[in-house]
Design goal:
The chain is mostly helical. The chain is built from two helices and no strands.
């Protein structure tokens, strides 16, 4: 139970940071800050932070078994024994 609780806490922290990063991007567009170098760097940092934490959420969900594992594209059935 403790491991499940810590996973939910990490997911919540990642979600909060993604929301804050998206709010930073929205505020940059609303205030037209992206016309300067500072605005472009703000956009880059916010998008990078949102991407990193989104990947962390996907990684946690995959480790928890909530997302299906991707197959390698080969036949998943075991090979038939040779006669």
């Amino acid at each position: 139970m403790n491991e499940k609780k810590s996973t939910f806490e990490l997911l919540a922290m990642c979600a909060v940071l993604i929301v804050l990063s998206v709010l930073g991007v929205v505020s940059a567009f609303v205030t037209h800050v992206f016309d300067s170098m500072d605005g472009l760097l703000l956009l880059a940092v916010c998008l990078m932070m949102a991407g990193i934490f989104a990947l962390m959420i996907l990684w946690f969900l995959k480790d928890a078994g909530w997302l299906p594992h991707r197959s390698s594209g080969s036949n998943d059935s075991p090979a038939a024994p040779a006669k």
